Amino acid sequence: TRAEIIKKLVTNGYISLNKKTQVIAPTLLGEMIYDVVASSMKSMLNPELTASWEKGLGMVAEGEVEPQVYMGKLEKFVSDKTAGVKQLNNRYLLKGYFDEAAKYYKPGRKKKK
Predict the structure, then answer these.
(1) What are the percentages of helix, strand and coil residues in the chain, rounded to 5?
(2) E-strand stretches of the chain
(3) Are 43 and 51 spatial neighbours (Cβ–Cβ below 8 Å)?
(4) pLDDT tens per residue, range 32-43
(5) SS3 string of 32-61?
(6) Are 33 and 14 in contact (CB under 8 A)?
(7) What is the pTM of this model?
(8) pLDDT for 37-82, tens place per residue?
(9) Is 95 helix (H, G, I), strand (E, B) or coil?
(10) Cβ distance 55 to 5 under 8 Å?
């Protein structure tokens, strides 16, 4: 559900949730991940991709496609995208994005052990 997705994003530190106002905002980590994806594999941000995955899962659930066939296609897609990202040399571009975004965040507090 959407609530579970939001809870997971908060738990993983990608977004923050103000419990009083219920306002959701990205964390620095969340912005960094978005920047990496946007500059490395923009197609992953396309809602049509999510829709096609949902359609594929629906076809598996209905028995129209074998789970192994669907997973094979999904694994190939992920493998191809990962190989493409590994070939990029965009570290300096991403560092610029990070430095720009970091201006708007307070330095993190270290937790006491």
Answers:
(1) 65, 5, 30
(2) 15-17, 24-26
(3) no
(4) 889 888 888 888
(5) HHHHHHHHHCHHHHCHHHHHHHHHHHHHHH
(6) yes
(7) 0.66
(8) 888 888 888 999 989 999 999 999 999 999 999 999 999 998 998 8
(9) helix
(10) no
